[in-house]
Design brief:
Largest interface: A-B, 24 and 21 residues
Radius of gyration of chain B: 21 Å
Structural class of chain B: mainly alpha
Number of helices of chain A: 11
Largest sheet of chain A: 10 strands, mixed
Strand content of chain B: under 5%
Distance between the termini of chain A: 65 Å
Oligomer: heterodimer
CATH class of the largest domain in chain A: Alpha Beta
CATH topology of the largest domain in chain A: D-Maltodextrin-Binding Protein, domain 2
Shape of chain A: globular
Helix content of chain B: over 70%
Distance between the termini of chain B: 50 Å
CATH superfamily of chain B: MetI-like
CATH class of chain B: Mainly Alpha
Number of helices of chain B: 11
CATH superfamily of the largest domain in chain A: Periplasmic binding protein-like II
Number of domains of chain A: 2
Order of helices and strands of chain B: HHHHHHHHHHH
CATH architecture of chain B: Orthogonal Bundle
Strand content of chain A: 15-25%
Amino acid sequence: MKKALYKTAFWLIVFVAGTGKAVADTTFIRLATTTSTDNSGLLDILLPAFEKHNEYTVKVISVGTGKALRLLREGDVDVVLVHARSAEDKLVDDGYGVNRRDVMYNDFVLVGPDSDPANIRGTTDATSALSRLVASNSLFISRGDTSGTHNKELQLWEQAGITPQGHWYREAGQGMGKVLQIAGELDAYTLTDRGTWLAYRNKAPLVIVTEGDEHLFNPYGIIAANPARYPDVNYSGAMALINWITSPAAQNMIGNFTIDKQRLFVPMHDLVQPDGNQ
Amino acid sequence: MTQLLDTSRQALVLLFTGDPALWSIVSISFSVSLRAVLIATPVALLLAFLLAHARFPGRRVLISTFNTLLALPAVVVGLTIYMLLSRSGPFGDLKLLFTQTGMVIGQIVLCFPLLVAFSHATLQAADQRAWETAVTLGAKPWQAMLTLMYEVRYGLIAAVTAAFGRIIAEVGSSMMIGGNILNYTRNITTAIALETSKGEFAQGIALGIILLLSALLLNFALTFMQARDGTAR
């Protein structure tokens, strides 16, 4: 009796696990994306519209850019939507990703305590703001997690000719929301993407000090996993999503997406494309 | 499978080439958890002794409470203490958030129930004659208490080892309260969480190996002490 029960349970598990896998191969798309796109709520608008017009269901895995790219590299996801241009290009050059397309961009802002000890509030030049921040010996909290935002921050330090090191520079190694909390608690400055800032600004005693520098622009790209390398990825699903997200309909939705009446992302559609690709 | 092997091999290389950031992480882990255990143990032992050998109203409720708190999730402890220490919280003026002292407080809260529950069980089972003999020989109550604790020292050491094991391996409260800041509050477990989120699995495995090796060394040391003690008698 007991044996029969175990047997039934065993076959039941095999059956359920088996069907789950079969379904996953054809109609599910595994999308790895950065926490900034997911937290902003943009995907909650875009993906249901995509799913309505296609037979696919998108499973979103929301992680840091580094992890997202790693997932694509290992063939664990079908498509990634991230913002780290040089790392994206490397992934494509190494043959792990194919058909990279520009999707949209948003921008970064420097935020800091209301008291503004570095006296940089209202400036528009990111590198000089950072230099003055360091000269005033103010605290700076870095993401320190090789995310897209962290990469951008390191680029800015390089442009400013500063080696970010010392007592004033703290590497938090956590997500953007948490880093904003830490900066708020310690009266420190930090670099954040505008989306997360809009979502968290009421919870942190910080203000925008520097914005509008073109060095602070942040392009997002979408890349499919290479089916030649990983035959079991859902390539047709990934391409359906890529084609749709770069289509005029989706690009308009991105352009119309706002938080508190503030536009968060500028679709690539709105930019003049010098090389003609879209 | 090859990925797992590759990762482990890279991990070993990292361990033996050893960089300063790695050792800062390891030392923060040990200094925080050792401080927490050292502070929590005397108080917990005293409380466990009272629960085992004194009779007072609410004793059973207290025992059940501490047994229940064994299931306390580390993130809940982290969140609660975070809110208490935040600048908008009641103890914000102490500026303890994102410091090692804050992490020590969180780990004390985490290991205290475990210390009390395990030591209580050990002391409860202790031979009462040790206490009675000590009292008959004219020992003061606190001396008799120490005699009793000495009789069951291995059980108590096991309780302390388990408590240390719990807090050196926890990630939730250290991440919430400490903030994972390099050279200040980044310990082994929060570093593993970070490396995983970066996709740097080899670093994560390397840190995991260090954690396990240190736990192994600690336990060997304790076993060795017990064995030597046993032959001396």
